[in-house]
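We emphasize that the prediction below concerns an isolated chain of 415 residues; any contacts that depend on oligomerization or on bound cofactors are therefore not represented. The input was used exactly as deposited, without trimming of termini.
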Amino acid sequence: MRKKRVWAGLFGLERAVVESVEIDDEGQVVVAVRPHHRELDRCGLCGRRAPGFDLGEGRRRWRALDLGTTIAQLEADAPRVRCPEHGVVVCAVPWARHGSRFTRAFEEQVAWLAVNTSASAVAELMRVSWRSVGRICERVAEEAGRDLDLLAGLRRIGIDEISHRKGHRYLTVVVDHDTGRLIWAAPGRDKATVEAFFDALGKKRTRQLKLVSCDMAGWIEAVLAKRCPKAKRCVDPFHVVQLATEALDKVRREVWNEARRQGQGDVAAGLKGARYALWKNPEDLTARQQSKLADIERLNRPLYRAYLLKEQLRQIYRLPARAAILLLDEWLAWARRCRLRPFVKLARTIAAQREGIVAAIRHGLSNARVEAINTQIRLIARRAFGFHSPEALISLAMLKLGGLCPPLPGRVTVT
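Result of the prediction step, given as a token string:
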């Protein structure tokens, strides 16, 4: 085997020719290469043949995977062509992505490592800056997203938001319930952000949507009614029960404040200590909390009525669909006449959202899968000690949770 073919094999070069190998003054291995003649004069953006324009800025280097502990570089000419679609651009090279100063193998290894460890550890291991790690992840995710259409064949999706940074910085995320994958994410938490998702999805694929799970946010509901009115909106059960828990706590605070105003210090202290007994599910109560709840039943009927309202609303998600819908209507009638202001207000909210709540009951759909994805996104951000750019976080999340992460160079994934 010729030595040049050995070097080409070491660097994983395809559709390229090794011209020479030398060690420069800095002790780096520099491999001079050129694209195969069939790869010459191609646009760096679309890959189509184009007439030559000039020689560009001369020879350029691309950082390759280290050879042991020695830094390796590929060096080649970087002429420019005049593409009919993209204008004057640098020619494409088979060993690197357009606009990158790293080889494909180098970037794919960085992306794989970034998915599995912290960006600072990747930066130290690969001898690049952590900002370069973020930009590499963006390039790899963008290319993988073009090759794998995550928006194809969608029938049941979940939409939610997640705070990724202090100062009310949010991402809107979309998850496919059938595959469990993160399929889309963008900065923002408003109608325009959800509209951007449906713009990316397109009218034809939007009409194929059957179910959409979400919370009761108006900015999601309004866009769904406009863009996919035939899809059933399923209101997430967790958020429904959470509203009931918040209403219960408002009643508890009102009763607690009233006891303090009347000078009943012992009663107020007991109510403050009963917080978790009221919040927890009955099957999870300790003996002491059960005793506290029995005291509330005996001494404070309004607060105990609020507790029963919360528990009955939670019960609708444990019954068969038909019985659950009947119980929901009974709950609405009881809450409207319960004379507890927080629950009267909640009854109006539940009545307005009844169609979405019933759809979630009938189809057994919730945002639990979306919340699991959000938890993993938070772990990604925490492991990286935060991101200055939401795009870098989105790219890393898409690599890990969207199935876009490439295998390590030279490895074959077994399916």
